[in-house]
Amino acid sequence: MGATIIDGKAIAEEVRREVAAEVARWTQAGNDPPGLATVLVGEDPASAVYVGGKQKATHEVGMEGFDHRLAADTPQAEVEALLGELNADPRVSGILLQLPTPGHIDGPGLTWLIDPAKDVDGLTPVSAGLLAKGRPGLRPCTPAGVMELLDRHDVELEGAEAVVVGRSDLVGKPLAQLLLARHATVTVCHSRTRDLPAVCRRADILVAAVGRPRMVQGDWVREGAVVIDVGINRTDDGLVGDVDFDAAAERARLITPVPRGVGPMTIAMLLRNTLEAARAQAAAPA
Ligand code: NAP
Predict the structure, then answer these.
(1) Which residues line ligand 1 (CB under 6 A)?
(2) CB 239 within 8 A of CB 46
(3) Checking DSSP bridges between strand 161-165 and strand 94-97, what pairing results, if any?
């Protein structure tokens, strides 16, 4: 194997330590601790684990956590009312509605009700618009985590050929915009892309955010490329990414594993967003 492995777990821990130190300074200066409210509707076990992890991490860095768990049959109007209360609550700096929601609830639509100042998941139209316009704002956590991994490994972005496979609102699209803002030449691929392997082979930075186990083959990777695997797929072999790791690592210069790659960065960036949101709210005129 030629590639250096990007240790996302270690970098995420570093970010969390930095956030904890900044939270301590913030509260020592007389400010209230930042607060993160999570809203989970239903009992989906994976979602419950994610929310539990986010709340635990929130407390670990010295922030306040507000853990709202609603029954699966909660009417949409009740969730709307809760989001309204959280928007108005000054102790709450950030709000996260865990997706997916049960079928009778329009989860993506509900995220639009979150006050953009508290949109620590970066999914409201205002946050998406700020990103598209290249203005400061709260960025979606997973793409922000990818950028952090690249930066902490000093990956040159300016002028680099970046290929992002996947165009979701959650990962592919915002990541492409973040890379573009840093002057990479960005190609976004999806299920209708013609000759995907050939497009991937152009990449200095190749990102897979698809949700198909080991779809990206070793010979899709250019020699010396940086490979970032966002995929999380539960298979009989355990958790695997969207990249055939062993084969890709033969050709890549830097590569993220799954697990311990991009995954741990998401919560770390959520914490950082919550701190940023608290600071911006404190600075905003009442
Ligand atoms: P998604 O909404 O399902 O989007 C998948 C994207 O992949 C779509 O744009 C789709 O194209 C594209 N695609 C599907 N099949 C393809 C193919 N054969 N060739 C090329 N493109 C193809 O998924 P997502 O939410 O972005 O998540 C992607 C992966 O990242 C999943 O494994 C997810 O679990 C993981 N993930 C990880 C984290 C984390 O690490 N914290 C966070 C979020 C997501 P079309 O648009 O044409 O359908």
Answers:
(1) 142, 165-168, 170-172, 189-193, 196, 209-212, 230-233, 262-263, 266
(2) no
(3) unpaired
What is the 210 CA–ligand 1 centroid distance (Å)? Answer: 3
Distance CA 175, CA 195 (A): 22
In terms of Cβ atoms closer than 10 Å to its own Cβ (0-12, 13-18, 19+), residue 286 is exposed
Span 64-93, mean pLDDT?
98
User: What is the rounded distance in angstroms from the CA atom of residue 251 to the CA atom of residue 253?
Assistant: 7
pLDDT average, residue stretch 186-206: 98
Q: How confident is the model at residue 284 (pLDDT cuts 50, 70, 90)?
A: confident
Q: pTM, whole model, 2 decimals?
A: 0.97
48-63: pLDDT as tens digits: 999 999 999 999 999 9
User: Closest Cα to atom 15, ligand 1: which residue?
Assistant: 191
CA dist., res. 67 & res. 228, Å (int): 32
Instruction: Give the type of residue at 189.
Output: C
pLDDT at 285: 72
User: Mind listing the pLDDT tens digit for each residue in 63-73?
Assistant: 999 999 999 99
What is the predicted pLDDT for the residue at 210?
98
**CA 99 / ligand 1 centre spacing (Å):** 15
How far is ligand 1, taken at its centre, from the CA of residue 92, in Å? 31
Q: Which residues participate in catalysis according to the annotation?
A: 54, 98, 121
Atom 5 in ligand 1: residue holding the nearest Cα: 210
